[in-house]
Amino acid sequence: MTEELKTGGQKGYLRIATEEAFATQEQLDAILRLVKEGRADKGTVSLWGFYGTSPSERTTYIRERLLDLGPLRIEAMDAAGIDKAVLALTSPGVQSLHDIEEAKGIASRANDHLAAACEKHPDRFFGMTAICPQDPEWSVTELKRGKEELGFHGVQVNSHTHGHYLDEERFDPILRACAEMDIPLYIHPQGPPDPMIGGMVEAGLEGAIFGFAVETSYHALRLLTTGVFDRYPSLQLALGHGCEGLPFWIDRFDYMFNAGVRSKRYPRLKPLEHGLHHYLRNNVWATNSGLPSPASIKLLIDVMGEDRVMHAMDYPYQYVPDEVRLLDAMDLPAEVMKKFYQSNAERLFKL
Amino acid sequence: MTEELKTGGQKGYLRIATEEAFATQEQLDAILRLVKEGRADKGTVSLWGFYGTSPSERTTYIRERLLDLGPLRIEAMDAAGIDKAVLALTSPGVQSLHDIEEAKGIASRANDHLAAACEKHPDRFFGMTAICPQDPEWSVTELKRGKEELGFHGVQVNSHTHGHYLDEERFDPILRACAEMDIPLYIHPQGPPDPMIGGMVEAGLEGAIFGFAVETSYHALRLLTTGVFDRYPSLQLALGHGCEGLPFWIDRFDYMFNAGVRSKRYPRLKPLEHGLHHYLRNNVWATNSGLPSPASIKLLIDVMGEDRVMHAMDYPYQYVPDEVRLLDAMDLPAEVMKKFYQSNAERLFKL
Description:
In chain A, the strands form two sheets. In chain A, strands 4-5-6-7-8-9 form a six-stranded parallel beta sheet. A three-stranded parallel beta sheet of chain A has the order 1-2-3. Helices cover about 50% and strands about 10% of the residues of chain A. Chain A has one domain: Alpha-Beta Barrel (TIM Barrel). The longest helix of chain A has 21 residues, at about 100-120. Chain A has 17 helices and nine strands. By secondary structure, chain A is of the alpha/beta class. The two termini of chain A are about 35 Å apart.
């Protein structure tokens, strides 16, 4: 009795999936080498020690699917009724690597590889640039190449870079480039850095189940609370996994931020031009990757407005066509459904 | 034009506030001594180094109000239309202390002090027992005394105890006692332990704005994912601050938990008798302390059902009578409003 999912506007909208992952073999090889040499952080050891080597059905499937930018992926998209995928180099990109020349080479070749796939499937695949935040100036050049030569639509940063965050001064050129070149900045999770991971690995909770959201919401909140969007009012930040929970918490963030600023509790926190809600509603976009949850999606729309919440699938990590059926059936007006599945992504990523 | 807030059923329900804090002077003295001696963890140093010593308007007010279990508190409740308050020794209770005999003495005397105040205001104040998880057996005895001799209605644990969590075997007597004596377990935040706090203090984010929720949702998720509620199906866990976000995330928790169990990723995670949604809807209760947010409260009710979501004010940390007006105006049926403000708390805490 299950309805077949089709592309092409079956329900009055195209379905765009905005947080879809691919890998290159040399990326995985480099990360696994770090893991084997004991030079990776605990989050990477857990993530890629598992996905890179486990013989389980899940990991074998995911490895195969990550490396494919061709028929397997198109077939999966067709079967799930996904018209377009916005693709990015899977977490942690090259951000865990220590050899910066190697990291830049891998990111750059991943970008070329992705651009070729997008050229081959111009109606289905849309790329985001991979950068190497370890070298901000190089990353700016690669952002420019990604946008102007490779036709990419955003940049994905996989949260921390060796425990450092984009609000730190060293990364300012990257934020400036995104703002000036009008490149959406998608911050994707990875595990928390070692000084923040505590016993999460032993508890089995440092990954996508929990630690990812801790890490990424922390990153986003660092940006929101330190004036980044006052410096760059046009900067647009996309967050997956239900905007990493930020809209659920925004009233508490705002109350406690203002209480802290008024009492001068933290030297780092200073008055901002706007309340935190303002940035959430003017500089942040949400996707529902990994969270195919009508109640949570409605909260996002309620808090952020219907123009900033987008669909994502998180293929191949969470490829569940039934989730598309569930979301198709959400109790939302037709025009909001079209914004969610199609037009918001078209607007942000200029598809 | 603001409507005066009154107690006594002004809107068709009594208003019960379920996460209200008090302190004793010897508790604050002991914590501040640790801070001064450099023996407190970073979260405690930040929290009580600030609240205990800052001359700001906010902290002066909070210190005075925490120490009062009399007229100031009753007056504040009257002015905010709060009929009843469920009270607990403020975070971190005695859990940061190293001298266990001292800690037990402080907890025990705080319980006596609270019981006396409840006896003086039997229609307004309702207590939760303070325990010292550093000594689980003593805590069991104090739980029994709290329930049977002092007439208390629950127990508040301020999340980790020196970096340890209630799912660890050493604390099993406490969980068993709560289940067997039908004592609701309220897990209240404190800052994350040092191995999990990373750069949060420097970022100004380790406290109520963010780190509290990381710490407490982590604690709750450890309980949910390790069979605690299979061992003790009658155990009832209360979480503040919008159930610390768990209902927003529950689909992702459940998907990733099951994916991890199936692929045997973590030795610690084993199949449970039920999906995680089951425990959320049968063993967990939410309060909206610090989150006076209709959108978030509606999500809680949507996901957990209308019988498990309760009102809280977080006095004196967040004493904002206008929040009561805002929540009075929530677009929810009258019978749901009564459950939220009154009957759910009456049922859980047996008021």
